[in-house]
Amino acid sequence: MRVSLLLGVTAALAALSACGAPQARQDGATTAGRAFEVALAAGDFRTACELLAPGSREQLVEDERKPCERALPSQGLPRGGGVRSVDVYGRQALLRFSGETLFLSEFDEGWRVTAAGCVPEPGDEPYDCVLKGA
């Protein structure tokens, strides 16, 4: 009896924690995306660069041949506006604002922007992004 009760409690806790996990990932991706947008709007390119995924930051620096903080302003990224939706698939997220779309990935240090300034292509084609990693 005691073992079955323990298994029942364990199963219930696992189910509850599984239900909360997607919301926590959505919240984390949304928070990181908003922080990136706020940093851009404030001209705080150092913070915005810290919120980029390593590969995206490295690609920007390589393409522009200058430090991220100086390269990012020249990208002409649109300002996002209000969040319309967030879709999380494991450690990847698609965050749609009223004026732009961001792609994010979850790293050990938290959610980071992998692509910004993204617009959907017609049909089944992928998004076209101003800023993206290799």
Structure, described:
The chain has 134 residues and is of the alpha+beta class. The protein has one domain (26-132): Nuclear Transport Factor 2, Chain: A (Roll). The chain is 46% helix and 26% strand. It has four helices and five strands. The protein has helices at residues 2-42, 45-50, 54-64, 68-71, and strands at 83-89, 92-97, 101-107, 110-119, 128-132. A five-stranded antiparallel β-sheet has the order 1-2-3-4-5.
Strand and helix layout:
Elements: H1 2-42, H2 45-50, H3 54-64, H4 68-71, E1 83-89, E2 92-97, E3 101-107, E4 110-119, E5 128-132
Antiparallel strand pairs: 1-2, 2-3, 3-4, 4-5
Give a summary of the structure in a few sentences.
46% of the residues lie in helices and 26% in strands.
Number of strands: 5
Order of helices and strands: HHHHEEEEE
Mean pLDDT value: 84
- Residue ranges: pLDDT <50 for 5 or more in a row? 1-20
Largest sheet features = 5 strands, antiparallel
Radius of gyration over C-alpha positions, nearest whole angstrom: 18 Å
CATH class equals Alpha Beta
| Class derived from helix and strand content | alpha+beta
